[in-house]
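Running log. JK asked me to keep both predictions on one page so they can be read side by side. First protein, sequence followed by its tokens:
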Amino acid sequence: MEPAEGSHLDALAYLECALGLLGSVLLKLVRSAYGRYASPRPACRVPARAAWALQELPSLAVPLWVCARTAAERLRHAPNRVLLAMFLVHYAQRSLIFPLLIRGGKPMPLYTCTLAFMFCVYNGYLQSRYLSQYAVYADDWVTDPRFLLGFCLWLIGMLINIHSDHILRNLRKPGETGYKIPRGGLFEYVTAANYFGEVVEWCGYALASWSVQGGAFAAFTFCILVSRAQQHHQWYLEKFEDYPKFRKIIIPFLL
């Protein structure tokens, strides 16, 4: 464990924050190019299920590789193990289960899938290397109010995210095509309930980890998903005349 690498991991975390801000600006200037926003022009595309599995898998595989190739000294401590498990549980669901549940789904542009893959490699390394080698917690950190509140937020956010994805998958009955207004759950209050769940989840993880690395991931997630949610919200307002005007974009009663 080298002090210099610890500083490098901090620098990578700050860079992740900057990338989140940059990505947020770019998404406002250039629309997402997958799903309902996919261009009809010919392009190299990846089937939806394969794209989601491939782009999310590094966040599961890279931490396992990081921990296997070196002595993960800090994982001898319960707080480090629990925090890393929180990260891995999300991405096990996202890379191994979520793709299998996709119904249909439009192919994703290769470059979009590649960018997501690269981010998952970057962030998977950052989080796992920090937690396995450098994060120092007292053994009773798991009873600290910050950890307990963060863990609860993480769990609630993940459940909101999974439930909201379930609602989106079941909007259309077998044989139906086209788009519908999501109903039920937190979709009664916000346009992007699934994104809200993910933001809550990673803010909880950041609070529980009480680290620059966890905070950077939460900040990146917030920047990117708020921009995407704004795009979705505007699309629904333009597409459906009866779209509920009281719905917020991503945060109930606020934004």
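And the second, directly underneath as requested:
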Amino acid sequence: MGTLPERKDIPPWVKAPEDLKDPEVLQIQTQLLEAMFGPAGSRIPYIEQVSKVMLELKVLESSELTEIVVYGSYLYKLRAKWMLQSMAEWHRQRQERGMLKLEDAMKALELGPWMK
């Protein structure tokens, strides 16, 4: 991915053009975006500022995945990628535990198969 990002508002902590080369890329489930970044991505500016990186999100066509592209200096983008992967895994596990609790509650109520 040697292309420069389309974004025009490059944060001051990201040095162009050197920090815009060789970004780190990860893919997460699209359904986790709101839990990680808040409604309409409201937490993205804060995460960028604290992590000293720039993030771009790209929803992949015909997929339930979103690609997160992380720009910044080498150590900052690696640290941010690790943090985002950890956040995604935590939210995925939390969601899974919630579904298991829901299934257990439905079993406890002994709902018939037509109710599931």
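Observation for JK regarding the second prediction: The chain has one domain: 15-109.
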